[in-house]
Design a protein that fits this description.
The protein is α+β, with helices and mostly antiparallel strands. The protein folds into two domains: 51 residues, no CATH class; 77 residues, no CATH class. Helices cover 45% and strands 14% of the residues. It has five helices and five strands; from the N terminus they run E-E-H-E-E-E-H-H-H-H. The strands form two sheets. The protein has a three-stranded antiparallel beta sheet with strand order 2-1-3, with no helix packed on it. A two-stranded antiparallel sheet has the order 4-5. The longest helix is centred in the middle third of the chain and has 16 residues. The radius of gyration is 27 Å and the shape is elongated. The relative contact order is 0.13.
Length: 139
Amino acid sequence: MPNYYRISDPSDVRDLGEQMALWVAAGNPKAQDWALQPAAPSADAAWTDGAWIVPPAPTYSPEAWTAIHFSAMQVSALQRFEMALMQAGKPLGPLMTALKAWLEGMLVASVDPTPRSDWQQPPCSYEAASAEAVAALQS
């Protein structure tokens, strides 16, 4: 249902769909006190003083962005899987290769710890990469 806001007090937002239709049909001047609230531009937008306010995207340092996706133990385990595959003479699979490249990119990026909001998502999860490595080691 469409929401309307009171023109004199934009913080007063109501679902007036049916009521507004009745006011308009009857020529009730109350309909003039309300304006149709535009659709929110994004899910995190907040209606403030008669306008949608979109908060800035959160920013993260390279280290913080990496820590959101992988624990220190998981990064260490991935390194151990890589070493075990090398010692067994087996190549890294595509998931391990992609994740290794992503982690190395984040390591290089950490030279400049300035927080940013445009970091790329990792190419796969720890669970997927480690499962690939375990399967390769068991074959």
